[in-house]
Structures are given as structure tokens and as C-alpha cells.
Amino acid sequence: MSEVNEGKITKSDLNKAFIRSNFLMASSNFERMQALGAYYSVVPALKRIYADRPKEERVEAIRRHLEFFNTNPYVYGPILGITMAMEEQTTEVEKEPVISVRTGLMGPFAGLGDSLLAMTVVPIYMSIGAGLAIEGNPLGPILFFVLFSVTIWPIKYKGLFLGYNKGSALLTGDNSSNILRRVSTMGNVVGMMVVGSLIVSTVKITTPIEYSVGKSTFKLQEMIDGIMPNFFPLLVTILIYVLLKRKSAKNAVVIILAIMVIGMVLSMLGILG
């Protein structure tokens, strides 16, 4: 690999990234979820990598890291480390896999963190602390905080360094170009799967329309689901994407208001459920 950015990420940059990663949820929003927090985490690394680079490349790096991102904040470390390693070890023409890999990893890591930590370990710690608090022991909340910190922070810290070291080792080896192409392909495939699953799980559009033929009653929603489930959510998502793309998302507020008004009108007319 040639013409890789000269800025070398230091341990200090990684430590700063770890500290910043603890604020991942501070600016979470419904448009890009944790994107601002994810960008804030990599700012020290980007400053190091792009210190002497043209303004256009710095702007493109910022734009790249403000893409949609959402995962479990407890296991964000490896994704952050791999992302910084890829930024450091790739040329400007090879930057597409950076976000593809990040998007591809956020789903599996979200499932891992939610099931093992958020839904298992944390409730156990909460029950221990709550049990003491109910008995009037003021150490209950303190014990929960200590147990939580001792478990979560090492996972985040070690995960970040592990992701960075392993990512750097893969991308600087003899087969780095082939690995990058494979990672890019896998990232794109998994990223598309994640986006597809988000459409199914977050966009809910149904219609109660039904009609009768003779003594039989046909429900339009059931017929469409039998041919192509979640057709309406997919159709509306594609339409909104086209509208946003047309004006570079500058019309986002207008589209949101239009969706609200159209949705209420169609619901009152009995077209939407």
C-alpha cells in the first residue's frame, strides 16, 4: 500500500479516544443516532492523521464519520479501534471500506452487547444494588456503580486497543491489499443487511383496506404480505431516500413534516392503519 497518511496514531491518541468514547450517547439523535459521538471519539486520531493533509481530505473525513451509526455503547471499543486503524493505514482512494466495516460491525456488536451486558450483567448488578437499597443500605447504588465500572470499562478500554492493534496488523501485512478488498466486500454486504433489517424493524406502515368479492373478503395488507412482506416500508424508505438525495438532505425538515401530515390524513381516511 502506498501513499498512506503519514500521521501515526499514538497511545495518547488512543487513550483520548477511549475517554471520548464514554460520551457516545451524549448527542444521540433520531437522524443519525450515535454518529456525533462516534465522530467525537475519533477526532484525536483524525487530527493526527490529517494534520498536514489538504482541507478537502479533512472535510471528507469528517463527513465520512458523521454517517449513521448505532451500536451497544459497552462494546464500542473494538469498532472504534478498527476504524482508527483503517483510517491510518489506507490511502484516500481506499477510504470507502472504513465506514462499510463500521456499519457492518455495529449490528453484530449491538446484539452481543445487548444480550450479554445490557440484558444480563447490568440487570444482575442492579438487582444486587437495589436489594441493598431496599434494606436501607446506602452502599447499594455505590456497589452497583463499582461493579458496573469494573466490568464495563476494561471491556471498552481493552477492546479499543485490541481492535486497533489487530486492525493495523491485518492492514500492514503482505496481503494487505487483498484483505482490504475482502473486508470492503464483507462490510458492504453486512452493511446492506443491517440497513435492510433497520427498515423492517423501525418503519411500520400497514393498511386496513379490504374489499369483498361475493361472500369472500380480501384484506389488501395480507395479500401484499403474501407476495412481498414489508413492501410499504421499503417503498416509502426508497422514496424518502430519493427525495433526500435530490437536495443533499437540505429538505429533511420539510420531508419530516410532510410525512407527519400525510400520515395523519391517510389514517383519518382509513387508508393507513
From TrEMBL:
Annotated InterPro entries: GatZ_KbaZ_carbometab, PTS_IID_man
GO cellular component annotations of the record: plasma membrane
Protein origin, superkingdom: Bacteria
Transmembrane segments: 116-134, 140-157, 189-207, 227-244, 251-272
The entry's keywords: Membrane, Transmembrane, Transmembrane helix
GO process annotations (BP): phosphoenolpyruvate-dependent sugar phosphotransferase system
One Pfam family, short name: EIID-AGA
Entry-linked PANTHER family: N-ACETYLGALACTOSAMINE PERMEASE II COMPONENT-RELATED (PTHR32502), PTS SYSTEM, MANNOSE-SPECIFIC IID COMPONENT (PTHR32502:SF27)
Descriptive protein name: PTS system mannose-specific IID component
UniProt lineage: Bacteria, Bacillati, Bacillota, Bacilli, Bacillales
